[in-house]
């Protein structure tokens, strides 16, 4: 297991390096001169030249990347063009909101997806299975921004159950904060839960038709014991990977959902930074999102190795 873990760590480091290079090159080739953005269009060529030298933009591109990477490793991502605050502070303020939103969405997606997938697998071909499959297909066909708008219209406007947007006020109770999180969390969780539902349904359905399940039934074991100890345990192996990828994708979905719900998280901050040509914030937010996704993928690989020893052997 130790060798398997070190191999995955090396892969993680390589992917983080490649991701940082891609993000750096994308920002470097974005339209606009950072010196002009900071000084304004009325700046003289001499002022722009001095600012470019101060920002290190007159250096060769590889040198600029190495300087930026070394600073990023020390959690120094530069200064925001819009607010003149350190980028790490700007991102940290939004990251807490996104972390809470992603945690609630992940919990909802796992609980709902697992429950519906298990029920559909055990009622294979029945009306319940058809209804759950239809719900999953419909959930996957609706874009996140449309799903968010529907939830606002139905739950907030028509029923008046939850606030339609924002994150509330400072000093509010945990329950009040949760009310602002629930709608965007549902918008994020529903598509993910639909994927998990379909995947668990197929994986558990195939497992329940195996010979060892038939043998367990012939021994007179209770159905709950067969499902939990034999069926789910083996169906969990392929499900872990898809679950990890889907939960990692919550960050990508948060960009749209946070914008729809005016939720002050990392996704909305990124959109605002792009609109305001605040490249240091965009660069820092993209780097953080890539790091979180890759770390989650690494943790999924480790969990996969712990669940199935054959993966560790094959990984050598």
UniProtKB/TrEMBL annotation:
Highest taxon of source: Bacteria
Cellular localization per UniProt: Cell membrane
GO terms assigned for molecular function: dipeptide transmembrane transporter activity
Keywords, in A-Z order: Cell membrane, Membrane, Transmembrane, Transmembrane helix, Transport
Membrane-spanning segments: 12-30, 101-122, 134-157, 177-200, 235-261, 281-307
Pfam family, one: BPD_transp_1
UniProt topology in membrane: Multi-pass membrane protein
Annotated ranges, domain ABC transmembrane type-1: 95-304
PROSITE patterns attached to this UniProt entry: ABC_TM1
Principal cellular location given in the protein's record: membrane
GO terms under cellular component: plasma membrane
The family this protein is said to belong to: Belongs to the binding-protein-dependent transport system permease family.
Protein name: Peptide/nickel transport system permease protein/oligopeptide transport system permease protein
């Amino acid at each position: 297991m130790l060798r398997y873990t070190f191999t995955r760590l090396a892969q993680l480091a390589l992917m983080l390096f490649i991701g940082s290079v891609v993000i750096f090159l994308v920002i470097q080739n974005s339209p606009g001169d950072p010196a002009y953005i900071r000084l304004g269009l009325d700046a003289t060529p001499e002022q722009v030249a001095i600012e470019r030298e101060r920002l290190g933009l007159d250096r060769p591109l590889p040198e600029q990347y190495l300087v930026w990477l070394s600073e990023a490793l020390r959690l120094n991502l530069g200064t925001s063009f819009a607010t003149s605050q350190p980028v790490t502070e700007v991102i940290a303020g939004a990251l807490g909101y996104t972390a809470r939103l992603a945690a609630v969405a992940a919990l909802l997606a796992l609980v709902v997806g697992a429950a519906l997938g298990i029920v559909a697998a055990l009622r294979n071909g029945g009306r319940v299975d058809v209804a759950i499959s239809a719900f999953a297909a419909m959930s996957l066909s609706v874009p996140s921004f449309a799903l968010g708008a529907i939830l606002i219209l139905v739950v907030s406007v028509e029923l008046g159950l939850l606030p339609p947007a924002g994150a509330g006020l400072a000093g509010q109770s945990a329950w009040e904060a949760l009310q602002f999180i629930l709608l965007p969390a549902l918008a994020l969780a529903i598509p993910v839960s639909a994927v998990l539902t379909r995947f668990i349904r197929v994986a558990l359905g195939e497992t329940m038709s195996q010979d060892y399940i038939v043998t367990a039934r012939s021994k007179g074991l209770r159905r709950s014991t067969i499902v939990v100890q034999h069926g789910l345990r083996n169906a969990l192996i392929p499900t872990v990977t898809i679950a990890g990828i889907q939960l990692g994708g919550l960050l990508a979905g948060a960009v749209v959902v946070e914008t729809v719900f005016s939720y002050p998280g990392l996704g909305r901050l990124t959109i605002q930074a792009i609109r305001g040509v605040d490249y240091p914030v965009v660069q820092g937010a993209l780097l953080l999102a890539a790091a979180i996704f890759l770390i989650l993928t690494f943790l999924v690989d480790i969990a996969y190795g712990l669940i199935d020893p054959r993966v560790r052997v094959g990984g050598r």
